[in-house]
Structure formats: C-alpha cells, structure tokens
C-alpha cells in the first residue's frame, strides 16, 4: 500500500494582464527528485499569454479545466480543446507552437512537463488531441475514473506514463492501482480526501508525492476530484533553461542557437 510521502499547498500568484493567475503545482525545483516529471503549471489566462514559442527535449500534457484553448503549430496543425479535453505533445527535436484562448475566453489549464530520456530527445515532434467524450470511464458506483494514459488510456506517450482523473462521492472508498516502479504524485481538484492507511488528508489545492506501492487507498470526506500522474524514471542528467530541457548545458546552448537560426521552422500563426 502506498502512502503520502510529501504534501504541500499550492501557492497561487496574481499576474498582470493577460496572464491572470499562475501556480506551480509541481515546482521545477523538484525536478531532480521527481524524475521523469519537470513541472506541473496551473494557469488562468487570456489571449496573448502563450503566443508563438518553442520547446525541445520533453513532452507536455495539457489538461483544460475551463474555457476553449486553440492550438496552432508551425507545421499546419490547428485544433480547439474544451473543458475536459487533453493534448499530448512531443516536442522532441524541436517544436514551435502557440496556445491561445478562443475569443474573449479565460482558459484555466494544467500543463505537465514530462522529460524525455536522452535516447528520445531528438525524436520528431507530434501532437495528439484527446477529447472528453472519447476518454474511457470506469464507473464503480460512487467512484468514476477517467483514464487518459496507461493500459486502457488513448494517449500514446513515448515513455511509460499514466494519468487518471478520479471522482469520489462523499464517504466512499476506493483503492487505485499503481505501478510500483513509477514516480507518482496527485493533485486535489476538488473536495477533501484521506489517503493510505495513515489517513493523511488532502483538500482542494493541495498536492502530494506518494511512496512506492501497488495501490493507494482513498476515502473521500466530501465529494472529491483527484488527478493522479505516474511516470517511469530514467535517471538521465537534466538541465532546464526556459523552454528547453536537455542533458547538458552544452545541449541547452545548442538548442538556443538552433532556434535563433530558424531551425525550428517559421512562426506559428
């Protein structure tokens, strides 16, 4: 049985227009202990916040909580995500895109940065949009589990990764299966829930890292919604600078030069 290893309350920061509010659910300062996870950012933003920008060396998983998010890349890709939709992106050898709200919408989103091992840093970039109506749902009475990635999920990441959203009615109990070899953390989207045999309680706006185990026990004190992320660590060196995540400082320098020389392609617009 897994237990809560470390928990914290997320600190939200008011920002200047058009980036309304921002928080690091998983702070990038933790990336060395959270392999393969780099960060999890929560944002509320209007159009003009995340216009054309590059990425290299990692993957993003963007979960839209509210609003309409338009994605544009410089390879001709374009799509709109709504509440409950998720996008997987492999930046790999270099991607350039924009993520903007539609019209006057304020988008509320969570974006996870998932590191690539050194052997996959130069893979071709690609995107996969996952729409809410296509996500498999396991209904177990007072508990429902939306499976985005894992054995039954439609996401096709390049590395072993699992992601699920768990909704639990007040007073209900549920044991969620885990991969004991993965790094696992969770984030409370709503409610108040006790975890593990210790009964450590988390409420909305709190996050936690789990110990290794095959299951995590959950008992909801109020109607709760939980996002749980699980990834296989690979142990490679990591150096992050802005939108680039590589293995050495020299590779960061090379990525910056490649971008400045236009090797990531034209502007996304």
TrEMBL record:
<feature type="binding site">
    <location>
        <position position="99"/>
    </location>
    <ligand>
        <name>Fe cation</name>
    </ligand>
</feature>
<feature type="domain" description="Pirin C-terminal">
    <location>
        <begin position="164"/>
        <end position="265"/>
    </location>
</feature>
<dbReference type="InterPro" id="IPR012093">
    <property type="entry name" value="Pirin"/>
</dbReference>
<comment type="similarity">
    <text>Belongs to the pirin family.</text>
</comment>
<dbReference type="Pfam" id="PF02678">
    <property type="entry name" value="Pirin"/>
</dbReference>
<dbReference type="GO" id="GO:0046872">
    <property type="term" value="F:metal ion binding"/>
</dbReference>
<feature type="binding site">
    <location>
        <position position="53"/>
    </location>
    <ligand>
        <name>Fe cation</name>
    </ligand>
</feature>
<feature type="binding site">
    <location>
        <position position="97"/>
    </location>
    <ligand>
        <name>Fe cation</name>
    </ligand>
</feature>
<feature type="domain" description="Pirin N-terminal">
    <location>
        <begin position="32"/>
        <end position="114"/>
    </location>
</feature>
<protein>
    <recommendedName>
        <fullName>Pirin</fullName>
    </recommendedName>
</protein>
<dbReference type="InterPro" id="IPR011051">
    <property type="entry name" value="RmlC_Cupin_sf"/>
</dbReference>
<keyword id="KW-0479">Metal-binding</keyword>
<dbReference type="InterPro" id="IPR003829">
    <property type="entry name" value="Pirin_N_dom"/>
</dbReference>
<keyword id="KW-0408">Iron</keyword>
<feature type="binding site">
    <location>
        <position position="55"/>
    </location>
    <ligand>
        <name>Fe cation</name>
    </ligand>
</feature>
<dbReference type="Pfam" id="PF05726">
    <property type="entry name" value="Pirin_C"/>
</dbReference>
<dbReference type="InterPro" id="IPR014710">
    <property type="entry name" value="RmlC-like_jellyroll"/>
</dbReference>
<dbReference type="InterPro" id="IPR008778">
    <property type="entry name" value="Pirin_C_dom"/>
</dbReference>
């Amino acid at each position: 049985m897994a237990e809560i290893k470390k928990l914290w309350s997320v600190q939200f920061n008011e920002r200047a227009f058009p980036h309304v509010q921002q928080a690091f659910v998983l702070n990038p300062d933790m990336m060395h202990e959270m392999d393969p996870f780099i960060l999890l950012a929560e944002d509320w933003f209007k159009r003009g916040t995340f216009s054309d920008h590059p990425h290299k060396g990692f993957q993003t998983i963007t979960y839209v909580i509210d609003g309409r998010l338009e994605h544009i890349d410089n390879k001709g890709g374009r799509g709109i995500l709504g509440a409950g939709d998720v996008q997987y992106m492999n930046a790999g050898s270099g991607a350039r895109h924009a993520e903007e709200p539609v019209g006057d919408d304020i988008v509320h989103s969570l974006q996870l940065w998932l590191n690539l091992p050194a052997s996959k840093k130069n893979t071709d970039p690609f995107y996969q949009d996952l729409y809410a109506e296509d996500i498999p749902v396991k209904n177990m009475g007072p508990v429902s589990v939306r499976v985005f990635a894992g054995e039954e999920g439609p996401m096709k990441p390049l590395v072993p990764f699992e992601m699920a959203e768990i909704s639990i009615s007040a007073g209900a109990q549920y044991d969620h299966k885990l991969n004991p070899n993965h790094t696992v953390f969770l984030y409370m989207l709503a409610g108040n829930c006790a975890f593990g045999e210790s009964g450590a309680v988390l409420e909305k706006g709190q996050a936690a890292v789990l110990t290794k185990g095959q299951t995590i026990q959950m008992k909801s004190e109020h109607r709760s919604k939980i996002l749980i992320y699980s990834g296989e660590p690979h142990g490679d060196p990591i150096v992050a600078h802005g939108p680039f995540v590589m293995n050495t400082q020299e590779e960061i320098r090379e990525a910056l030069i490649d971008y400045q020389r236009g090797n990531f392609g034209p502007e996304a617009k």
